[in-house]
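Module 6 notes. Inverse folding takes a fixed backbone as the condition and produces residue identities as the prediction. Think of it as a translation problem where the source language is geometry and the target language is the twenty amino acids. Below is one complete input and output pair. Work through it position by position during the lab.
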């Protein structure tokens, strides 16, 4: 497009403002593309369209004025309080996974929820801390701020001690920075640039296997709190294996008091959750088992002085109030790009999957790109307030729905509950043993560990998906969650290529009295059409599977009807006819008649390459290749540019359906080789004598 054409489309006052700002005399095309995105957006969104753009960016302004207060208020209130109570123990527990003090888990359960309340489009998911995201954050914080960097010399010559305050401060800064960067990725790269398609490679088997493997990482990371040991931190490939070996070597140093607290808490939680599940039929509001557990554990720890008497590690100081925003550590951004991108993809993939489930169930639409923006803003703004990356939790979302939550008003109320805890109640939990938080994590991971049952079900239904599940688990366990995710996606893409190279080939028959064609081997009532063979491939035909397609076709066709066999037989027949012509002039008419029966084979197109073959076949032979139903205009155009069509192979060989091609063959139009192209499924039709 020329510059003058651009000037016609951009108002003069916009041109003038841009020229003044840029300090140039002419408005060039490149300047327009690179410098005035905001101005062009403004010109496209003037008046009603600008209002529509703004409301779609801030969905709260659309649905909150129409909020049905009488119908939804009570349910959202009860749901918000119930979910807010769940945020307290989960937020503190998942902060341990992120290797930051527990209070920052409460911050992560407050700020991001308010942001999602404004920008999110799902009515039912509960955003906040999530185990998988937290363990991914923990791998970054412990890698960039290991304990060894904060050892200070003690009073003795050979003694050293850990500067916990400095270490925690550095880890909080790292967690907030990587969270901020992941939010930027979600908003800019995935949201505004519409790069959200990357999550389409996160198939359900991949996601379920990945979360199962991440749960294993979570469990191993919490063993030190359950046994009261202090293993060395490992990073990189096989770090999980090294950590398990280190934990086993340190079992002799187990703190008995800590181990007893862990065992008692796990048994109590499991029993209480089972009783709560039985009582759920009679009690509409779920029993806050985890809240009751941490209250009892805090009281017991305070009364028995577990920290001093038995050496049980406790949560420690929980400051009251909120913190002022802090700028991210720009110097650290380069060392965490890969981690931030993995967090952005995983967080969005989990949230949109759960959001779509509820949207389908309750008949409303979730805007996938707006969800990216909402989650991105939740993370980027939350990162400024020392939060770590969030997603949505299945358990909290189910509680939010089951207790009557109808909108994100329930989420806002849960955030207010956390605010009250931060301002007034948080300091009461300073004597809570960390072993109790680890036990809460173990019990909450029961659902993820049950996903091992997927292997059995996938073996019965789809073995390729089963292989994806197993490989994702192995890769994620052997590597860190971020590297494991990348390797798993790469393997999943390879399986897509593998499936196209090993499709299912079948012979189609007709359902009597209809224009429906189905595989003969799968349906008893389907019958083959006499004299016609319909060959079907389940995969798209391209260069990688073209040879296998041809081989499979030849296998389906009887050897006596094989094109090469026909060619050789007809060649001998023609030679014999020439001898008869020379030997007897009386057979001249018969020889000419037989010569007319000779048929020239046309080109066989394999993945865009045309290989010329000549075939002689009988009058009743109609052989066609490479064929697609409802061929799109773009493919036809590409064939025209590639000189596929000529005076012998014209567009008359194209058919819109299998039935049209069959009717063509049945009408006696089979004197020459016919090419019938059809899309979606690749079908080759052969009428044989």
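Target side of the pair, the amino acids:
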């Amino acid at each position: 497009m020329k510059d003058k054409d651009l000037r016609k489309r951009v108002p003069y006052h916009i041109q003038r403002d841009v020229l003044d700002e840029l300090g140039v005399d002419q408005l060039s095309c490149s300047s327009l593309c690179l410098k005035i995105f905001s101005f062009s957006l403004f010109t496209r969104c003037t008046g009603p369209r600008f209002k529509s753009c703004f409301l779609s960016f801030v969905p709260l302004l659309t649905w909150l004025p129409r909020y049905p207060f009488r119908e939804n208020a009570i349910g959202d209130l009860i749901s918000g309080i119930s979910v807010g109570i769940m945020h307290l123990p989960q937020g503190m527990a998942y902060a341990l996974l992120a290797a930051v003090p527990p209070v920052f888990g409460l911050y992560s359960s407050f700020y991001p929820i308010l942001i999602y309340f404004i920008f999110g489009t799902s009515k039912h998911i509960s955003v906040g801390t999530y185990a998988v995201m937290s363990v991914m954050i923990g791998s970054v914080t412990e890698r960039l701020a290991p304990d060894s960097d904060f050892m200070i010399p003690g009073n003795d010559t050979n003694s050293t001690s850990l500067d916990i305050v400095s270490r925690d401060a550095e880890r909080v800064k790292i967690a907030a920075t990587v969270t901020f960067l992941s939010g930027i990725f979600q908003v800019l790269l995935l949201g505004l640039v519409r790069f959200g398609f990357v999550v389409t490679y996160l198939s359900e088997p991949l996601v379920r296997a990945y979360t199962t493997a991440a749960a294993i990482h979570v469990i191993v990371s919490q063993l030190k709190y359950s046994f009261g040991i202090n293993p060395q931190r490992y990073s990189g490939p096989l770090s999980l294996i090294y950590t398990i070996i280190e934990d086993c070597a340190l079992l002799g140093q187990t703190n008995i008091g800590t181990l007893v607290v862990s065992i008692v808490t796990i048994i109590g939680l499991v029993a209480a959750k089972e009783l709560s599940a039985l009582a759920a039929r009679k009690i509409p509001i779920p029993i806050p088992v985890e809240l009751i557990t941490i209250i009892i554990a805090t009281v017991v720890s305070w009364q028995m002085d577990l920290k001093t008497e038995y050496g049980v590690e406790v949560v420690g100081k929980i400051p009251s109030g909120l913190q002022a925003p802090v700028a991210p550590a720009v110097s650290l951004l380069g060392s965490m790009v890969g981690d931030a991108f993995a967090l952005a993809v995983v967080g969005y993939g989990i949230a949109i999957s759960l959001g779509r489930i509820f949207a389908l169930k309750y008949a409303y639409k979730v805007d996938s790109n707006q969800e990216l923006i909402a989650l991105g803003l939740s993370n980027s703004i939350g990162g400024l307030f020392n939060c770590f990356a969030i997603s949505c939790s299945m358990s909290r979302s189910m509680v939010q729905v089951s207790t009557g939550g109808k909108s994100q008003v329930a989420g806002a109320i849960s955030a207010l509950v956390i605010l009250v805890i931060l301002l007034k109640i948080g300091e009461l939990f300073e004597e809570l043993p960390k072993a109790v938080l680890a036990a809460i994590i173990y019990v909450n991971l029961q659902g993820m560990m049950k996903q091992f049952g997927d292997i059995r079900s996938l073996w019965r239904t789809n073995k390729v998906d089963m292989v994806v599940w197993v490989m994702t688990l192995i890769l994620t366990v052997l590597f860190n969650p971020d590297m494991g995710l990348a390797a798993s996606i790469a393997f999943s893409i390879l399986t897509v290529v593998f499936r196209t190279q090993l499709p299912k080939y079948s012979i189609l028959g007709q359902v009597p009295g209809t224009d429906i064609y189905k595989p003969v081997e799968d349906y008893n009532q389907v019958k083959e059409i006499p004299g016609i063979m319909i060959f079907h491939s389940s995969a798209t035909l391209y260069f990688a599977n073209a040879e296998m397609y041809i081989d499979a076709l030849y296998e389906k066709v009887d050897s006596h009807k094989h094109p090469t066999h026909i060619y050789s037989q007809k060649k001998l027949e023609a030679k014999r006819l020439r001898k008869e012509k020379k030997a007897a002039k009386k057979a001249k008419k018969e020889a000419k008649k037989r010569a007319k029966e000779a048929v020239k084979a046309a080109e066989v197109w394999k993945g865009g390459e045309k290989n010329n073959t000549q075939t002689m076949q009988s009058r009743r032979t109609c052989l066609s290749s490479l064929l697609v139903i409802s061929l799109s205009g773009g493919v036809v155009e590409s064939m025209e540019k590639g000189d596929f069509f000529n005076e012998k192979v014209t567009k008359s060989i194209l058919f819109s359906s299998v039935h049209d091609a069959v009717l063509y063959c049945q009408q006696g139009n089979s004197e020459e080789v016919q090419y019938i192209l059809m899309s979606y499924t690749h079908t080759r039709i052969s009428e044989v004598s």
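Reference fact for the lab report: The CA atoms of residues 499 and 539 lie 8 Å apart.
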